């Protein structure tokens, strides 16, 4: 608190010293809420109600998803074919802007950048824009974390003409030119590292341009031969006279090329260092996209800010995701690292300690840009939610397998239900759950036994959709908000409006966001660059 006061004082003092003019009022923190279209509302009345609820909880920034793999959630004139079906006759973005601005809240339009649906307009119209792995397949060939086949197509961020210059940047320009948005949030500005960190992109465009990008070939000497001898020592000047590009590159298969980029050597005696050039190409491609987005926004509406939803560590992000966000400080106003509970192992108290430490590091990586720490509300309660999901999964397997199964599935249900029982506060709901578990049959050899198993699953589901008071302790939410602030975050952004509703946490949001935040202009200025 003392530190925060001191730094605010310093900022005011320096502001006066530099400008020599009247002081601006101190900037209040951003208290944001990210909303999926369904959470914002399906008509004007619902949108007005959700905005009122957010305003009452001291939220001052609404972040509305306007583009994801299901399409666009605004009335695009450029790409009417990409508008999501249920929003063809209802301009959600326009309605949210009207209702939020009426209540003095800022609005950021949130884009999930490089992901598309397999039946979406962009991929079906331009399959050649997709990223390819060494086998020449798109991300539809991958198996996701759930063990099921992956349903989204990641689009190549490098290819020109391609997804970025023909679709994504025009969308950004259209939004900032035709809607009075206060900011943009770029999400998914990365490669699909969580899916296959080394698998993309090996499309024809990338394979043709990766050497050019690092100037590892001479435009004026396209036939320069690769080095056939070892260098006396590695030196950038000595390296000037040859190319690491294999002589027969154009005759190689996609797999051979990918293998060289991931495991090859720059020269005979170096370490397997071609991957350095490949990963640098990827991070630069994404960084360039952020710069292009910044230029478009700046030209169309300089007062519109750009935020980036990023993974928690830009150095690891550079390696695995092509997302080295510490390089983006020239094009991004606010960083929103997804420092979510589910990205950490260990107990709740260990998480709090690591969360504080990460926030301090992120503040350094964000340099002179704003750090709006983001919190996924559902993941704060994963210790409570996971056992119920595991119990449900075992129940479903047992129901599908029928009579004769049981055994380990039954033990799983008993084990996970015990974890839930230990967490449930004493209440009639706990008694109801306990009774259902006690009645769990040994075998599902009759309709009655089957009904008893279904009842266990049902009371479990009910704990999630209508939890008893205290099952999701508000103290968890208050603790992370407090620690984020203490660790230097400039603002807080919350994911999971549905959970705030079902777990009855709105009052806690209001309590957590208890600093003064009135009196802000609806359209905030971009910070000085
Ligand atoms: Zn590519």
Account of the protein in words:
The chain has about 525 residues and is an alpha/beta fold. The chain has three domains: about 30-115 and about 155-200 and about 280-380 and about 475-510, TIM Barrel, CATH 3.20.20; about 205-275, no CATH class; about 385-465, no CATH class. It is built from 19 helices and eleven strands. Strand 2 and strand 3 (about 70) form a beta hairpin. Helix 13 packs antiparallel against helix 14 (about 410-425) and helix 15 runs antiparallel to helix 16. It is globular and about 80 Å long. The model is unreliable at about 1-25 and about 515-529 (pLDDT under 50). The site of zinc ion (ZN) has 8 residues, from helix 7.
